Amino acid sequence: MLGLGLGASVGAGRACCRRHRLPAGDTGSTGATGPTGDTGATGPTGATGPTGPTGPTGPTRPTGATGATGATGASGVSGYERVTGTASANDDNNKTATATCPSGKVVVGGGFVEAGSIPGIAKIGQSQATSDTVWTVFGRGDGINSWSLQAFAVCVTTP
Q1: pLDDT band at residue 4, thresholds of 50, 70 and 90?
Q2: Cβ neighbours around 128 below 10 Å, total
Q3: pLDDT of 52-95, one tens digit each?
Q4: Pairing of strands 78-84, 123-129
Q5: Which of 6, 77, 141, 153 is surrounded by the fewest CB atoms within 10 Å?
Q6: How far apart are CA 105 and CA 112, in angstroms?
Q7: What is d(CA 87, CA 116) in angstroms, rounded to the nearest whole number?
């Protein structure tokens, strides 16, 4: 060590201050590698990347085996029949006409025919099923002109 008269001593290549820099010595050899340190903590998960492109369509596969036959469904309606009721008298009075389905059948619709000396003279106030087997039509005349009314029913056999 060198004494600089400043109350401090300095080794080779060191200085006590900026003004008194000494030349550095030769670099020494590299020391032995130290032990491996502990594994650090896991960092945060990164952002999700963009969705990739859709892949190509796969090859067509052979048709599978035919499945078992399902249970037989309930029978539907059958025995469609249009029944025409008796025509009313050809006069100027109010009228009610009916058409009745034969035994074993039910009415599922109906209608009427109105005829007279002046077409459309009657005002029909009712045309509907009045029971499971009867279609009824009611009409009102003008009290002056003659007209007649005839009902019809659409009948079917139900399961």
Answers
A1: very low
A2: 12
A3: 999 999 999 999 999 999 999 888 889 999 999 988 888 888 99
A4: unpaired
A5: 6
A6: 20
A7: 12
Q: Do the bridges between strand 9-10 and strand 2-3 make them parallel or antiparallel, or are there none, so unpaired?
A: antiparallel
Tally of CB atoms within 10 A around 92: 17
Contact 101/134 with Cβ under 8 angstroms? yes
Task: Identify residue 110 by its one-letter amino acid code.
Answer: G
Name the residue among 120, 154, 123, 124 with its Cα closest to residue 137. 124
Q: Which amino acid is at 72?
A: T
Q: Is 106 left (phi over 0), alpha (psi -120 to 50) or beta?
A: beta
Q: What dihedral do alpha carbons 82, 88, 92, 95 form, nearest 10°?
A: -70
On the 0-12 / 13-18 / 19+ scale of CB atoms within 10 A, 157 is middle
In degrees to the nearest 10, what's the CA dihedral of 112, 117, 121, 127?
-10
Task: Find the angle CA(115)-CA(156)-CA(82) to the nearest 5 degrees.
Answer: 25
Reference 135, options 158, 159, 156; nearest CA is 156
* E strand spans, the chain: 2-3, 9-10, 78-84, 95-100, 106-116, 123-129, 134-140, 147-157
